Known about the structure:
alpha/beta; globular; four-stranded parallel β-sheet
Amino acid sequence: QYMAKSIAIVAGSYHKESVELMVEKAKEIATSTNLIVEEVSWVPGSMEVPLQIKRLFLRDSIDGAVVLGIIENGETKHGLVMGQAVTNALIDLQIASMKPIGFGIIGPGAKPEQIEKRLLSYAEKAVLAVSEMLSN
């Protein structure tokens, strides 16, 4: 018998209004792919995402996760460095835990006019990636 898989959504609240749209879309796609969203967890920004994922992955009930957020273009390379560090940490967490993480962080280096048109597609693709990895 098929047991529905449970995921967590970890969302960066730095651009909360926009990321809330991503969370709603992710929940909708999760439902349509028979995934249960066990928890939506908000963190201050992308930097806090890996730690929160690690905490959630300590639960046996959570089979995977989706991360959502925005790292916009800044005046310095801070976002680029942070984006690379967060991505590397998330890849390491996937491999260590054997649980998939759908990556729905827009950027780094996203300009305001690039963000809005990516919100829903990034959220959708992140959930679909996790769904596919959980069915393999």
